């Protein structure tokens, strides 16, 4: 999963999901890393596939685990080359939001809100 920022680092990319779970709600781009694949290349490829954007992957921001789902999330900061988002069929649309304009009541997952709050508090 990636927190994709614009070059100025004052906006964050969220995708409005067009699939369940969370259809119609906003989330980060992300995907699964297949065994034997490079983590950083997977992040770049997933973001490109979901948004049309090229990104430079930076530092790890946080980790989350969900034992009941057998899931471990590694969240990295990534910087987009531009803000022209072209979504695939998994999303209705993608937007870069100023941190003050994040649709807090329309986020798809608790982990999305938790990470956004962690990131915005850290970078105030």
UniProtKB/TrEMBL annotation:
Q: Which residues form a coiled coil?
A: none
Please name the Pfam families in this protein's record. Answer: NUDIX (PF00293)
Q: Signal peptide: which range, if any?
A: none
Top-rank taxon, per record: Bacteria
Give start and end of each Nudix hydrolase domain.
1-120
This protein is called NUDIX domain-containing protein
Name the species this protein comes from: Laceyella putida
């Amino acid at each position: 999963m990636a927190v994709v920022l614009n070059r100025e680092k004052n906006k964050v990319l969220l995708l409005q999901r067009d699939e369940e779970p969370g259809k119609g709600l906003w989330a980060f781009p992300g995907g699964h890393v297949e065994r034997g694949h490079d983590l950083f290349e997977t992040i770049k490829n997933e973001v490109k596939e979901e948004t049309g954007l090229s990104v430079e992957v930076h530092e790890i921001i946080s980790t989350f685990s969900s034992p009941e789902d057998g899931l471990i999330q590694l969240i990295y900061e990534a910087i987009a080359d531009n803000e022209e988002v072209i979504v695939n069929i998994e999303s209705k649309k993608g937007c870069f939001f100023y941190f003050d304009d994040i649709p807090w009541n329309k986020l798809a997952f608790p982990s999305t809100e938790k990470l956004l709050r962690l990131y915005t508090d850290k970078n105030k």
